[in-house]
Amino acid sequence: MSDDYLVKPGKKAKLDGRDPADTGGLKDEESARTQLADDIVAIDKLQDRLYAEGKRALLVILQGMDTSGKDGTVRGVFNQTGPLGVTVTAFKRPSEEELAHDFLWRAHLAAPKRGTIGIFNRSHYEDVLVVKVHKLVGAKEVDKRYDQINAFEKILTDNGVTILKFMLHISKKEQRERLQERLDDPKKHWKFNPGDLDDRKLWDDFQDAYETMLERCSTDHAPWRVIPADKKWARNAVIASVVRKTLEDLDPQYPKVTWDPKSFRVE
Ligand code: AMP
Ligand code: MG
């Protein structure tokens, strides 16, 4: 199932041809929830082994338009995972300090330590998305960044970090409903930001920027996946299954000790 959503390196991603309401061969919501429940427990067990092994790390990058469900994915997929070995970093508008460095500085600082899972809620990709669409940096400068990102991610993967990149693909119609909910439900007011409406007006420009990002930065060492995100249950189930499978393939091992446990007695 997982590889249906891969963007082949060097290929155009064509978001138009990808249905945001796709349910990825999942039978129905109930079976997807059962599968998810099983996967997130497995993810926790695998994470414990990753932590004990202490040699490698996993970086999960979440990108998507406002309301695409980045926060919900963190909550839905990692809520069984022990907090000891997981860090979540939300990338907001850069601070003065961050702007004084190269754009990858803050991403590198937040990269996961050996033995841990790092989650990027937004990421260095904002520097070729919102920055490009709002022309915060010149076009030539942005154009150099795709290769810089690929090189940066290669440094991480060469140093034991496996990278999973998920673009949460929602429809414009679904975004309308979710933004409206943020206005209608007092418990969601805090999530509403009038700036989101300005970005919604630039929907097509953002989709173009996403397509270019997918085409130029889906690499063999760190491929992108475009995850249909109109249905939250399908989104979570698909992502959890990819995370689980990836950790299973890494197959982290509890370290073998060099001493004999039988030589000690706990009085
Ligand atoms: P939120 O929707 O709460 O995640 O808000 C974070 C905001 O920070 C979004 O509007 C992002 O587009 C913005 N943001 C994140 N990274 C950058 C960046 N490098 N440059 C400019 N804006 C950014
Ligand atoms: Mg926002």
TrEMBL record:
Residues 28-251 form the Polyphosphate kinase-2-related domain. GO terms for molecular function: polyphosphate kinase activity. The keyword Kinase applies. It catalyses: [phosphate](n) + ATP = [phosphate](n+1) + ADP. Residues 1-30 are annotated as: Disordered. It holds the Pfam family PPK2. Keywords: ATP synthesis, Kinase, Transferase. It comes from the Bacteria. The keyword tRNA-binding does not apply. Residues 13-30 have a biased composition (Basic and acidic residues). One of its GO terms (biological process) is ATP biosynthetic process. PANTHER family: POLYPHOSPHATE:AMP PHOSPHOTRANSFERASE, POLYPHOSPHATE:AMP PHOSPHOTRANSFERASE-RELATED. NCBIfam families: PPK2_rel_1 (TIGR03709). Belongs to the polyphosphate kinase 2 (PPK2) family. Class I subfamily. This is Polyphosphate kinase.
